[in-house]
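Please predict the structure of the following assembly.
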Amino acid sequence: MKVMKFGGTSVGKPERMRQVASLVTKGTEPAIVVLSALSGTTNSLVEISDHLSNGDRAKAKQCIDKLEAHYHSFIKELVKEKGPYEKAQAIVAEHFEFLNIILRISFSEALSKDILAQGELLSTKLFSTYLDEQGVDHLLLPALEFMVIDNYDEPKINDIRTRLNQLLRKYKNKKLFITQGYICRNSKGEVDNLKRGGSDYSASLIAAAVNASVCEIWTDIDGMHNNDPRIVKKTVPVEQLSFDEAAELAYFGAKILHPASIWPAQKFKIPVKLLNTMQPEAHGTLISEEAGSVGVKAVAAKDNIIAIRIKSSRMLLAYGFLRKIFEVFEKYRTPIDMITTSEVAVSLTIDSPVHLKEIIKELEPFGSIELDKNQTIISVVGNEIAQTNDMVKKLFGSIRNIPVRMVSYGGSPHNISLLVPAGYKTQILRQLNKGMFGLE
Ligand code: ASP
Ligand code: MG
């Protein structure tokens, strides 16, 4: 069994969705196909939910109508025969009727999750209708019947495994399954989701649950690139990455893969392939236990970082100091990304400003606090890069003119992270592209 996940842009136009159908019917291996919502849909649903939470029903209604019109023109192009077309119309009508009913109910968090779930429900049902029209035998598996999360919003992998395999056992003669990415049920049994971009996570959890031969993530780019293609002119796809390298890149800014989607694949040793719907023959990127080669492979950038420096002479020769500091972050469930220490100071970074005020207040008794907002982490990732000759020299040689606020080296053998003011991001990514990869 393999898993194939297609993102919003891969199903965002009728012709692309038809192409997805041809890709999923090509192989002989049974497959579970995981779909995102059509591109733009989840953003619109977030907008609808925001208007409702602000009590602005008129604006919400406008957004609903606009989205509904989009779906009507989508299905007109997607399915041609009368029967399937009427079915597609009924699907669109059902989901928009639901949104229109919600307009009249008083808003709640739980209701907002129901709104957000409509995108994946629509895309999978419409895709299934198209497959019916093409006479492709398949089965729609409702993700809400097996994808479950706990009180802390963490997926319950054992339950997912049991439920999904139970479902699959019922349909032993089927070879093609379609299911929704992103959506799940929470511990209260309500409809919930795996957060924005979470369809990748769904795919990797499903791959882990069924012990898939591979988890293919299909997007609109031919794999993970060595640098951000939106910022530097020339980038090249990275052929092979280890799970550790991919995790660093995904976490530190490479947008192609949701960072949480690495762990299920890594834990259950499922290779992940990043592939391009527009260029299905392209090699893409293989992520597995093997790194493939030694040396620097890619750089990525993560924005909106806050650096906090705690300076205290009491830290000198003291023990337990770091623990006390970390406890503050633990209390506010705020992850720390980078950390560097000197004998009298600690610098660390966070990416969530949600509890910043409380955190600073609780850190104040430990010493003087300095805060630098609007920083960017630049992460240089590769295999055994610490042992690569001249790597550090090349790295710092190519960015001599850039004021680096923090450096983290040696935490893992795969990564060196630099913290710079956000204004230097473009410049540093370009200079590194030249200095580390010899690309303009
Ligand atoms: N549709 C969801 C989103 O846009 C999930 C996904 O596409 O991965 O965030
Ligand atoms: Mg995505």
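The chain is about 40% helix and 20% strand. The radius of gyration is 24 Å.
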